[in-house]
C-alpha cells in the first residue's frame, strides 16, 4: 500500500482549485487507483453499435486497462463482456472484429458460452461432477460488465455493478452527442473504417485537457497552420478567396486569442464540457451541395436550421473521450500506464447525407489525428516533454488557474469565456469525485454481506 | 527518347536518396502538379478519400509538410529526425511507351530516428510515373505499411 490507496483525503488533496499535483500524471499508484476506482465508477465509452450490426458480431477493445468484448446478442441487444475465459483466463476473442455465430468457444479447452456470457458447454463435463463446480466463479461463464447503455448507437459501460446512472452521469451533456447524430438526415450514424491508432508516451489526462485548451493552437501549431497560411499567401491568395478543403481545416488553428475567447466554453456536472458555444473552427466550412435539402427532408426546416446552427468544437465526455459534432468524429484516450496512452480516432457517416461529408471527416482525421499528421506531431511533442518535465523536483504542481474565480460550483452548468481553464478544473473535480466514490469502503461492504 | 527499365529503377533509387539526404525541394520537383502521396490506414484499402488514410496529400500539403520541417518553431523537429531507406530492386509492372505511363512496385525497409528512438517500418511503395517533356515525374505514389493497423508514435519524415 502506498500513499494514496484507501486514502480519499490524500487523493482529494491532489487537486487544490487552481493547481493539480504532478502525481496525477506520473505516479504509478495513482494510475492503478484510477483503474480501480475512476474507470470502474464512471461510464466509459466502448464502441458504436454499427461496428457490430448483426447477431454474433463482436468487437474487442479495452475499457481503460480492462480487455472487453462488445457483442450483438441473439436478442439483438449489445452486451459487453470481459474478454477472458472463466477457466484459465485465455482471451476468448483476439481479432479486432468478427462474427462468432451463436456462441463463443475458447480456443484452449473448448469451453463455450452464449453471447451474453452464460456457460453453454464444457467438453467431458462429467469430470466436474460432484466437485462443487457449480459454486465456482467459472460456472457463471464469461463475466459481464456492471451496466451497459446503448445511447443512439454509442455504447457505454460502467464496470461497477452499482453506481451512478447513465442519465445522471451525462445529464444535459448528451446534447452534443444528439447534435452529432442529428446531423444525419435520418438521425443515425455508421462507423467508417478502422480508427487511427496513435501511441502517446504521456498520461491520458494531458490529452483530455488539451481538447479544451484554447490557448495552445496558435502557439504549438504555428509550424503547420501558420506555414499553411503563409504558403497560401505566397501563392497569391487572400483571406477571402475560397479555400480548398485542406486550408479550410488547417487555417482556423491560427485564429487569434480573441476568436477563442469569444467562442465560449460550457461545462456540465461530472466533468463534461465543450468549447465552441457561439462559434468554432468548424463554423466556416463550405456548404456541401444537397446536404441542406436532405436535412430539411429528414428533420423539417426549423429543426434542420437549429441542428446546423450549432458548431460545437470539442466536447469532452469525462473521463476519456472527445467528440466533434460538426464532423462526426470521436477520439478515445485509452490509458495503458501512467505514461502511456493509446489514442483511437474514429469517424462516422451521417446516414442519408452526401458522401462529401464523409470525405471531409476522413480528411480532418488524417490531417489532424494521424501519427503522420503535422499537427499531431507538435501536440505529442508537448505532451511527452511535459511527461518528462514533470519529474523536475523544483515544482510539484501544474497550473490550471486561467480565469479561476475561486468560487466555482462544478455541479452547475456554466458558460464562460472560451479561454477559461474551468473545464480542466471541472474534470479534476469529477476525477476526485469518482476516484473517492468507493475508496476505503470495500472492507465495510464485505462485512455487510 | 524512350524510357528503359533501368531508367525507372534508377528513378526509384534516386527518389529514396533525395529523401534520405533531405533534398526536399528536388523531391517536390519530381511530382506532377495533380499527384497524390497516399499511405492507406487499412490493409488493401481501396478508397483513399471516403475512409481514413494515414496520408493522402496533394502537392500543397506535401509542400507544407516539407516547409514545416525547416521552420523556426517546428517543435517536434528540434532536434531533427533522420531517415534511411533500404530498397529491394523495384519490379517494373507496367511500361506503356505510347502514353508514357510506367508503374513500379518496390519493397523497402524504412528507418526513422530522433533522439534515442529509432523505428523500423517495412513497406511496399507503388510509383506511377509519367514521362513529361523528356523527364520522368511522379504521377502518384502509394505507400503500404506492412503494419498499417498498428499503433504508432510520430512518423515525421517520408517513407
From TrEMBL, chain B:
This is Phenylpropionate dioxygenase. The keyword NAD does not apply. GO terms for biological process: 3-phenylpropionate catabolic process. GO terms for molecular function: dioxygenase activity. Keywords: Dioxygenase, Oxidoreductase. Belongs to the bacterial ring-hydroxylating dioxygenase beta subunit family. It comes from the Bacteria. The keyword Oxidoreductase applies. It holds the Pfam family Ring_hydroxyl_B. It comes from Rhodosalinus halophilus.
Amino acid at each position: 500500500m502506498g500513499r494514496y490507496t484507501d486514502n480519499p483525503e490524500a487523493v482529494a488533496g491532489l487537486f487544490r482549485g487552481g493547481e493539480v499535483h504532478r502525481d496525477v500524471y506520473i505516479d504509478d499508484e495513482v494510475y492503478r487507483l484510477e483503474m480501480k476506482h475512476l474507470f470502474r465508477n464512471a461510464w466509459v465509452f466502448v464502441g458504436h453499435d454499427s461496428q457490430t450490426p448483426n447477431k454474433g458480431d463482436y468487437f474487442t477493445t479495452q475499457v481503460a486497462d480492462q480487455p472487453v468484448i462488445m457483442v450483438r446478442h441473439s436478442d439483438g441487444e449489445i452486451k459487453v463482456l470481459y474478454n477472458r475465459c472463466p477457466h484459465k483466463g485465455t482471451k476468448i476473442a483476439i481479432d479486432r472484429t468478427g462474427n462468432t455465430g451463436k456462441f463463443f468457444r475458447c480456443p484452449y479447452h473448448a469451453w463455450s458460452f452464449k453471447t451474453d456470457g452464460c456457460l453453454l458447454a464444457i467438453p467431458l463435463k462429467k469430470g466436474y461432477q460432484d466437485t462443487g463446480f457449480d459454486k465456482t466463479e467459472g460456472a457463471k461463464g464469461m463475466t459481464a460488465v456492471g451496466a451497459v447503455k446503448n445511447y443512439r448507437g454509442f455504447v457505454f459501460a460502467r464496470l461497477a455493478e452499482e453506481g451512478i446512472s447513465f442519465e445522471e452521469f451525462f445529464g444535459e451533456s448528451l446534447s452534443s452527442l444528439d447534435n452529432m447524430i442529428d446531423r444525419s438526415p435520418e438521425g443515425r450514424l455508421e462507423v467508417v473504417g478502422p480508427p487511427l491508432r496513435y501511441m502517446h508516451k504521456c498520461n491520458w489526462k494531458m490529452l483530455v485537457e488539451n481538447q479544451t485548451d484554447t490557448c495552445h493552437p496558435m502557439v504549438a501549431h504555428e509550424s503547420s497552420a501558420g506555414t499553411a497560411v503563409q504558403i497560401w499567401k505566397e501563392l497569391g491568395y487572400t483571406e477571402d478567396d475560397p479555400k480548398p478543403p485542406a486550408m479550410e481545416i488547417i487555417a482556423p488553428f491560427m485564429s487569434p486569442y480573441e476568436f477563442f475567447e469569444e467562442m465560449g466554453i460550457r461545462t456540465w456536472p461530472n466533468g463534461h464540457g465543450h468549447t465552441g458555444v457561439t462559434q468554432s473552427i468548424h463554423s466556416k466550412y463550405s456548404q456541401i451541395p444537397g446536404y441542406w435539402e436532405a436535412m430539411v427532408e429528414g428533420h423539417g426546416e426549423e429543426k434542420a436550421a437549429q441542428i446546423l446552427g450549432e458548431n460545437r468544437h470539442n466536447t469532452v465526455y469525462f473521463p476519456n473521450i472527445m467528440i466533434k459534432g460538426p464532423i462526426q468524429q470521436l477520439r478515445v484516450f485509452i490509458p495503458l500506464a501512467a505514461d502511456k496512452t493509446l489514442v483511437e480516432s474514429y469517424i462516422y457517416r451521417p446516414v442519408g447525407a452526401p458522401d462529401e461529408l464523409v470525405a471531409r471527416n476522413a480528411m480532418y482525421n488524417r490531417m489532424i489525428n494521424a501519427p503522420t499528421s503535422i499537427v499531431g506531431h507538435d501536440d505529442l511533442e508537448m505532451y511527452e516533454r511535459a511527461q518528462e518535465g514533470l519529474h523536475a523536483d523544483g515544482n510539484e504542481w501544474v497550473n490550471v488557474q486561467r480565469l479561476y474565480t475561486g468560487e466555482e460550483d462544478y455541479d452547475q452548468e456554466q458558460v464562460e469565456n472560451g479561454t477559461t481553464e474551468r473545464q480542466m478544473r471541472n474534470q479534476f473535480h469529477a476525477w476526485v469525485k469518482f476516484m473517492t466514490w468507493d475508496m476505503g469502503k470495500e472492507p465495510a461492504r464485505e462485512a455487510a454481506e | 527518347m524512350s524510357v528503359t527499365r533501368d531508367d525507372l529503377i534508377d528513378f526509384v533509387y534516386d527518389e529514396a536518396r533525395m529523401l534520405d539526404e533531405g533534398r526536399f525541394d528536388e523531391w517536390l520537383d519530381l511530382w506532377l502538379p495533380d499527384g497524390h502521396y497516399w499511405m492507406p490506414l487499412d490493409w488493401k484499402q481501396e478508397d483513399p478519400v471516403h475512409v481514413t488514410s494515414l496520408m493522402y496529400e496533394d502537392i500543397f500539403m506535401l509542400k507544407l509538410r516539407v516547409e514545416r520541417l525547416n521552420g523556426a518553431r517546428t517543435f517536434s523537429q528540434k532536434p531533427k529526425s533522420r531517415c534511411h531507406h533500404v530498397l529491394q530492386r523495384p519490379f517494373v509492372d507496367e511500361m506503356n511507351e505510347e502514353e508514357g505511363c510506367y508503374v513500379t512496385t518496390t519493397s523497402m525497409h524504412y528507418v526513422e530516428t530522433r533522439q534515442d528512438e529509432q523505428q523500423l517500418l517495412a513497406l511496399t511503395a507503388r510509383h506511377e510515373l509519367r514521362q513529361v517533356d523528356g523527364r520522368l515525374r511522379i504521377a502518384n505514389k502509394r505507400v503500404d505499411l506492412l503494419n498499417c493497423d498498428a499503433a504508432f508514435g510520430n512518423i515525421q519524415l517520408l517513407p
